[in-house]
Design goal:
mainly beta; Chitinase A, domain 3; transmembrane transporter binding
Amino acid sequence: MGVEIETISPGDGRTFPKKGQTCVVHYTGMLQNGKKFDSSRDRNKPFRFKIGRQEVIKGFEDGTAQMSLGQRAKLTCTPDVAYGATGHPGVIPANATLIFDVELLRSCRSQPDVHKPGPSPPAAGDPASSSLLTWN
């Protein structure tokens, strides 16, 4: 149980994301039957999250943390590190094993969480902020 990682194409083999760093990835999420439920590639917008902040499901974070820069991998996440017995109603069934095709585009050093002038982040429910990977 947990996450299984199968390399599709290797990365640099030496640059791995660390706790507190922001990862930038492209991914496609599928059920075991091959039905796609989410994709940053379809939105043509890479997805960002911080390692160690529980911003995404555990299997996705644990798998990505073991990938090196530029690597593309298939992550198979058992229900205990995905959405468990609850699932995500209407999208992901209860006790579903999820499969992600993930490419680690970059990982950045941690930055202090300081507000910078500029546009506000997308509001909850805004398509730019939505991803099934998050715990909201």
